[in-house]
Write a structure and sequence with these properties.
Layout lengths: L8 H6 L9 H33 L2 E6 L4 H16 L4 E6 L2 H12 L12 E7 L5 H11 L7 E4 L1 H43 L1 H9 L4 H41 L2 H5 L11 H25 L1
Antiparallel strand pairs: 1-3, 1-4, 2-3
Amino acid sequence: MIALVAGSPHEKALLPEGRMSGPMPWVIAIMIFLTVLAAAAGLSLTRAAGSIGHAIAGRVTIQILDANVERRSQQVRAIAQRLGATPQVTRVQPVDDAEIAATMEEWLGKDAEALGLPMPALIDVDLARDASPAALDRLRAAVLPVAPHARIEPHASWLGPVSGIIRSFAWIAAALVLLLGFAASAIVMLTARSALNIHHATIEVLHLIGATDTQIARLFQRRIALDALFGSVAGFAAAVAILFLLSSQFQSLGAALLADAALGWRWLLLPLIPLALVLLASVTARYTITRALKRIL
């Protein structure tokens, strides 16, 4: 009986040496590159959506629309004093008129004041809990007697859809990761079957001289796993380089949403992707080769 051990002359005769000899390592590298980028995007989007949801859950803006400046200021002070004593309210912050004017200037230009548009007074309010319908009703009951024309707008009403869209993109990224995993598994199966077809005659000879299916399958499994490992390392290194480059560019922007989308400790999850693919390639190769060898003889 012949023993096929890793690195023996029999193995070298059956499978070529070198990671550059076939397309599979490079296909795996591309798969890992895309998978890591998709996973990083999904993790970032999930964190950003969670940050938005947490930030807007109990945040409300009150608009005072009275055209009389003096009466509007009185209403702002009265609302701030009244809500400050309300248990369900954790923070009451009137927005400075200069800040409102600067915001209007961004939309209407430097001549915004010359247009004579009435400027509303704004009050930012943070609730102790989420802005549920019952909480908003209690807030209206406290505000409307003081300012009958006030509008109470929960931030979730206009930022909630944004969070939902971000979560949808995160699910799409997760689906891409799964699809790329299936594609990598299919590549491994095709490579294993191709190798068996190429070396069909040699395998028959090895069977005749006593080599078992397990020994032959282990030989192919090891070679394919090494190819997958080479491709995974190359693809992962390229993906991490791209992510670091993008991360440095995003940090220079200083946007709050981009800061919330930073991976943080989730970077530790990314190395699991190439490890999982190498394990998947090894298991898939062994299953494919073992099943094919049973049909040969």
